[in-house]
């Protein structure tokens, strides 16, 4: 405005000066006493002043004509496309170039008029016309910009993502119910997407039109229509990002929706979220950032602002799902999924910081870090809930057949699964002092204290302490469950089965590195001790019938007693057979070992007794020979009840 105010008085002063000079010349010329020479000088001066005035008037008219003519040409070019329904950039590069040139000319005419600050009505009318033409052109360029973004969008096809086939089949980590080992491991396998496919930059818009988009953006920004250009880009690309999430099978859910979901459905959604998060950030957002850089590279921070505005809502949609899970209940079955979600967010942390580095992206980055922290808290809280669930898992009836309890299978398979997350768990649990020092049911306080002291001095990891704590809680629970059996031999049989299963799971998996050989030796000793206690509780009384305690082998009383003892032995043996054929040892090797150990004791005692007392007892009282007895012992522990139907030979 300062320039305009200084130029106007200058023009007005020049006009007044010429008019005053002409007035003086006319006044002097009216004097009749002037000489011819003076009159000639005044006449020449008057002529020159008239010429100057004429030139000035012609200059103004020339200026008007010099603007109006090119403006009319530009106006005609711009207006010609207002009635044409086709798109300029579909008509070829020449038409597009001519249109952008016309826009550039309109902008220059406006700048020229504004710099001259002409005050006449005609000049103001020209300026209004030029602004109207430029506004029409900007509206058209905005339409063309959107059209190119939509029409030449490259479809995103996550061909490497196959969700339903792996998610919706089979059993998954659920509540504490029975799992077959193979189905558990298959269903609980961690999901992964190769980094090669994640990090590949793709062309979201066909490369042939990127230069055209850049030219349109430059023209709109230079014409002070930068807000309209940015808004057009954000509107189109945000829709494209939303469609990408749809292609990745990510749905919009409120916190209430997530909290109401059944676990089976929620588990499937989490798996999809984990896979989609990697692809969306590393592949799609990285490509979106690249597209913004290509189009807006010459326009300051516009590339970053456009990217953030387009990506913000889809990113918050993904983060809101994780946040909803973190504030929900921390059931044990969610632990692995919490770890999956935490790991993928931690893995993408550097990517997010790079994509949203400045203040404009701070809201996304802050929310991202907050959700990551909440998931870490959820992992710790869920592990505590897991321990509580194991400790408080109660039964009203004894487990049929004394086999491996569902709880034992669940916990040990779960621990095997947690080994895959050992680095993450050690990181999250390293400052957690909530691990209780538990006494195992079969250990004396002094032994346990010594073991604990040795563990801490050996620099045991945080994860090891937590997992050992879990197995101690499990053992304590199993001892409580064993008390539901009235038969002492079945109590030991049940504990033998379950502790053997625990030891084998650790020995034959990656858990061995976590627990160590000392733990394995200790639990091998435990189940072997329970096996011996089972044999003692089952067979000690029965084999006592086969002891030869008679003082006179020829007395009739001794013979009667021997026959009664043998009969009692058969009754007891047949009852054991009827009962313990229904008992189950799932592990083949353990079953064979216990059969052999039992057979050695029973058959040896039976052979000795029959061999010594056959003469006094008589063959008719012998129901089974040693080979038959041995075969019957091989029927034990199969989990299918049988009875002996040959009470007399």
UniProtKB/TrEMBL annotation:
Residue intervals of the Exocyst complex subunit Exo70 C-terminal domain: 271-635
Coiled coil region boundaries: 103-144
Alphabetically ordered keywords of this record: Coiled coil, Exocytosis, Protein transport, Transport
Family indicated by similarity: Belongs to the EXO70 family.
Name the record gives this protein: Exocyst subunit Exo70 family protein
Superkingdom: Eukaryota
One Gene Ontology biological process: protein transport
Gene Ontology cellular component terms for the protein in this record: exocyst
Pfam families per record: Exo70_C, Exo70_N
SUPFAM superfamilies, per database record: Cullin repeat-like (SSF74788)
Main function: Component of the exocyst complex.
Entry annotated with the keyword Phosphoprotein: no
Keyword Iron-sulfur found: no
Molecular function as annotated in GO: phosphatidylinositol-4,5-bisphosphate binding
């Amino acid at each position: 405005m300062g320039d305009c105010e200084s130029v106007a008085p200058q023009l007005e002063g020049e006009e007044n000066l010429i008019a005053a000079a002409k007035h003086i010349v006319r006044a002097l010329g009216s004097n009749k006493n002037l000489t011819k020479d003076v009159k000639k000088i005044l006449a020449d001066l008057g002529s020159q002043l008239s010429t100057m005035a004429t030139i000035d008037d012609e200059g103004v008219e020339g200026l008007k004509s010099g603007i109006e003519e090119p403006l009319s040409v530009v106006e005609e070019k711009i207006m010609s496309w207002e009635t044409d329904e086709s798109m300029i950039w579909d008509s070829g590069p020449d038409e597009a170039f001519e249109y952008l040139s016309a826009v550039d000319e309109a902008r220059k005419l406006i700048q020229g008029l504004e710099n001259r600050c002409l005050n006449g009505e005609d000049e103001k009318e020209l300026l209004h016309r030029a602004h109207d033409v430029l506004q029409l052109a900007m509206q058209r360029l905005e339409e063309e910009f959107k059209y190119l973004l939509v029409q030449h969008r490259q479809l995103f096809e996550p061909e490497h993502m196959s969700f339903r086939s792996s998610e919706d089949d089979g059993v998954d980590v659920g509540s504490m119910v029975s799992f077959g080992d193979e189905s558990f491991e298959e269903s609980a396998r961690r999901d992964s997407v190769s980094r090669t496919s994640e990090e590949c930059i793709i062309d979201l818009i066909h490369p042939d039109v990127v230069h055209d988009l850049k030219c349109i953006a430059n023209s709109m920004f230079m014409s002070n229509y930068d807000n309209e250009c940015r808004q057009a880009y954000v509107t189109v690309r945000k829709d494209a990002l939303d469609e990408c999430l749809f292609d990745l099978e990510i749905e919009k859910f409120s916190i209430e929706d997530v909290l109401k979901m059944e676990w089976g459905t929620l588990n499937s959604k989490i798996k999809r979220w984990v896979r989609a998060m990697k692809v969306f950030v590393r592949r799609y957002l990285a490509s979106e950032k690249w597209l913004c850089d290509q189009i807006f590279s010459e326009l300051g921070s516009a590339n970053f602002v456009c990217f953030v505005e387009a990506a913000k809502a889809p990113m918050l949609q993904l983060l809101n799902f994780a946040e909803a899970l973190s504030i929900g209940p921390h059931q044990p079955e969610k632990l692995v999924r919490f770890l999956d979600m935490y790991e993928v967010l931690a893995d993408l942390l550097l990517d997010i910081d790079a994509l949203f580095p400045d203040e404009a992206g701070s809201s996304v980055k802050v929310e991202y870090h907050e959700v990551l922290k909440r998931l870490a808290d959820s992992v710790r809280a869920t592990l505590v809930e897991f321990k509580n669930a194991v400790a408080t898992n109660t039964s009203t009836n004894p487990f049929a057949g004394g086999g491996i309890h569902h709880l034992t299978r669940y916990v040990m398979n779960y621990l095997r699964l947690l080994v895959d997350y050992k680095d993450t768990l050690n990181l999250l649990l390293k400052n957690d002092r909530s691990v209780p020092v538990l006494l195992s049911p079969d250990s004396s306080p002094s032994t346990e204290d010594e073991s604990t002291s040795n563990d801490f001095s050996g620099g045991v990891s945080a994860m090891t302490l937590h997992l050992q704590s879990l197995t101690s809680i499990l053992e304590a629970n199993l001892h409580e469950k064993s008390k539901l059996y009235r038969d002492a031999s079945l109590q030991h049989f049940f504990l033998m089965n379950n502790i053997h299963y625990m030891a084998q799971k650790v020995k034959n998996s990656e858990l061995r590195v976590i627990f160590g050989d000392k733990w394995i030796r200790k639990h091998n000793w435990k189940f072997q001790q329970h096996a011996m206690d089972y044999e003692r509780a089952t067979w000690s009384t029965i084999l006592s019938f086969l002891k030869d305690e008679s003082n006179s082998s020829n007395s009739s009383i001794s013979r009667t007693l021997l026959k009664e003892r043998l009969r009692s032995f058969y009754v007891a043996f047949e009852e054991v057979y009827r009962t313990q054929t229904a008992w189950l040892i799932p592990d083949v090797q353990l079953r064979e070992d216990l059969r052999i150990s039992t057979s050695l004791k029973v058959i040896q005692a039976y052979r000795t007794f029959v061999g010594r007392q056959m003469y006094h007892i008589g063959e008719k009282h012998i129901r089974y020979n040693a080979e038959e007895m041995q075969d019957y012992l091989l029927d034990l522990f199969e989990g299918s009840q049988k009875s002996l139907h040959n009470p007399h030979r």
